[in-house]
Specification:
Strand content: 35-45%
Distance between the termini: 128 Å
Radius of gyration: 36 Å
Structural class: mainly beta
Oligomer: single chain
């Protein structure tokens, strides 16, 4: 037996026919349901149960990933959560290197970067259900760093040998 309830939600029996399975639900289908099972034999047997359904979804992809502040070796990133589904944590992917950094809030300070280098970042929001994907990538360059210390070249030894000989006189 299969029945559609509230839009695209499907309610079907499990394979062993001992339970009902709600399929293709979204957060909008969260609510109270009342299930009644009846069987007509010699008498009418009826059983019912009240069920509160709380559908959980992953948080939406964060937006507006921006650089708040930057130095030659660090970047302070910030982003805006979207929708009304809370994130438990965020993951920021840094390239080059494909580093994945976990943040508990909607901002992150990244340090130990190389001066005057281009980096790319994307962020995703996660909860116990999962995630919906990464934000658009943000590309930025760290500030130039202080000049590298000058290194003197090693001393060179130059040797020059001059040979002198008297020219020969040509006779004709």
């Amino acid at each position: 037996y299969q029945r559609r309830v509230r839009g695209d939600t499907k309610i079907v029996f499990s394979a062993d026919r001992r339970s009902l399975v709600f399929e293709e639900v979204s957060q909008q289908q969260s609510g109270s349901y009342f299930c009644v099972a009846a069987e007509q034999r010699e008498y009418l047997f009826e059983s019912s149960i009240h069920v509160d359904l709380a559908v959980q979804e992953p948080p939406f992809i964060p937006a507006n990933l921006t650089v708040v502040e930057k130095t030659s070796t660090s970047l302070h990133l910030s982003w805006e959560p979207q929708g009304d589904i809370a994130a438990d944590f965020y993951k920021v992917v840094q390239k080059p290197g494909d580093y994945e950094i976990t943040a508990m809030e909607n901002d992150l300070m990244i340090s130990e970067l190389t001066p005057y280098t281009i980096y790319s970042f994307a962020v995703s929001a996660h909860n116990r259900v999962g995630d919906r994907g990464k934000s658009s990538a943000l590309q930025t360059r760290t500030e130039p760093g202080p000049p590298s210390p000058l290194v003197s070249p090693p001393p060179y030894t130059v040797s020059l040998t001059l040979l002198h000989s008297t020219p020969h006189k040509l006779t004709m």
